[in-house]
Amino acid sequence: MCGWASTPWYVVASEVLLSPILVRPVREQLEHDRVIRLLQAKYKRKFEVAINPGNEQTAPVGPGPAPWYPDLVLLSSERSRKLVGVVEVETSESINNLEAMSQWKTFSSLRVQFHLYVPASGVDSARRLCTDHQITTTEIWAYHAIGDQIRFTPVQRAAEPGETRSRPRVASEPREPAPVAKAASPKTVAPTRAASSSRTAKPAPKPAARSTARPKPRTSAARAKTSAASRRADGKVSSRKTAAASKALKRK
Questions:
Q1: Mapping DSSP to helix (H, G, I), strand (E, B) and coil, where does residue 136 land?
Q2: How many domains does the chain fold into?
Q3: Could you read off the pLDDT of 146-195 as tens digits, one per residue?
Q4: Could you list the residue range(s) of the whole structural domain that residue 75 is in?
Q5: 206-221 confidence digits (pLDDT tens)
Q6: Is 70 part of any domain?
Q7: Domain CATH for 96
């Protein structure tokens, strides 16, 4: 809060009790108002934005006869112009317990989005204050100047209803890969000669069973025929011999 010259004394008194920052240094106040206008251009893409830079009090929020004037007021783009969120920009001098208890606590209880912008050097302090006083913020952003430009970096964002956040992975020590057991190669056994020959050789034919039956005895008629045949053969042989002997005599 700054610019108390044109503010009534009773408003000043109430603000003194709630806010510890009466007058910011000129340099910080210029940077503060510059950040507000940059954020106005940023949030205009989605909302109707009203700002309260410096000692201006044009967009009040909150019920009661003593409303609050956050740095930016976000309204819906519909005709109802419903309050959607509030944005508060702090400098290094305004991050303290009294500011957190008075303004941050009130803005977080409005049941709308509460965006908090702090310098990069005050991020840890802002987080600690929110934790100590149980202040719920929708988003916490850090800003820092690079030359003539101001950069914004998201620091913390609350999970929306129905949104599940994945837990950050903890870097663990690399584990050595487990030794892979070598698969035993099947041994190829060369087939023996006997086995190969037994596979290729054809089965030998079974010997014919010998007949154990005895020859039938010959009859007398069969015997007579064989004897007659043998006699005839003997007669032919003897006649041939005699003929051959007679021829040999004649030649002599």
A1: coil
A2: 1
A3: 988 999 999 999 876 555 554 444 444 445 555 565 655 555 555 555 44
A4: 9-157
A5: 666 665 555 555 566 6
A6: yes
A7: 3.40.1350
